[in-house]
Design goal:
This protein is of the alpha/beta class. It folds into 2 domains: 121 residues, Rossmann fold, CATH 3.40.50; 68 residues, no CATH class. The protein is built from 9 helices and 7 strands; from the N terminus they run βαβααββααββαααβα. The strands form 2 sheets. Strands 2-5-1-6-7 form a 5-stranded parallel β-sheet, with helices on both faces. It has a two-stranded antiparallel sheet with strand order 3-4. It starts with a strand and ends with a helix.
Length: 197
């Protein structure tokens, strides 16, 4: 079987990326989720536990990485975020490589929230950006348990603006409603399969 066509799927927080990834999976594409990979790495026995324990013993609770403890560390130490990324990014990259080598679909979707920010977009055959109007984005994010305006703004500050992502994308999927998103996913799959037939 020839190498699968690799689509990078990205978008700012609250833009509908997880829903769009699910639509690709339902359409028969192999989907890898960077956030899910991090959850596996942080779980008890995960590959990130020991190196993060070495950096910050308090970040490990009941044998797993505690996200609240990481947040507390980031809030009090300006170097914490970079230290965490230096441990986690290579482990996530290894997980992604393993997934790609085992994928059996002709189209693979890599769901990577910070695709442009981490420079990974150059590894993709094409990049999809999911997008929604700012008011829709804000409402979705603030509906999440425990999310505050300040947290939302802090997350946005670390992400490339939506308008710039849209300009850099090969495809943009509007996620304001499910029929529009589903139809866009189907059109992209048909186009790629048509090009590679």
């Amino acid at each position: 079987m020839r190498r699968p066509y690799v689509l990078g799927l990205t978008g700012s927080i609250g833009m509908g990326k997880s829903t769009t990834a699910r639509l690709f999976a339902e359409a028969g594409c192999a989907v890898w989720d960077a956030d899910a990979a991090v959850h596996r790495l942080y779980a008890a026995g995960g590959a990130a536990v020991a190196p993060l324990r070495a950096l910050r013993p308090e970040a490990i609770v009941a044998g797993a990485v505690s996200r609240p403890a990481l947040k507390d560390w980031i809030a009090t130490d300006p170097t914490a975020f970079d230290q965490i990324e230096a441990v986690v990014h290579p482990l996530v990259a290894e997980d992604r490589v393993r997934f790609l080598s085992a994928a059996e679909s002709d189209i693979v979707v890599l769901d990577i929230p910070l695709l442009f920010e981490t420079g990974r977009h150059g590894d993709m055959d094409a990049v999809i950006v999911v997008s929604a109007p700012p008011a829709v984005q804000r409402a979705r994010v603030l509906a999440r348990p425990g999310m505050t305006d300040a947290q939302f703004e802090a997350i946005l500050a670390r992400q490339i603006p939506d308008a710039e992502k849209r300009q850099r994308a090969d495809y943009v999927i509007e996620t304001t409603d499910m029929p529009t998103a589903r139809s866009a996913v189907a059109a992209i799959i048909d186009q790629i399969r048509g090009q590679n037939a």
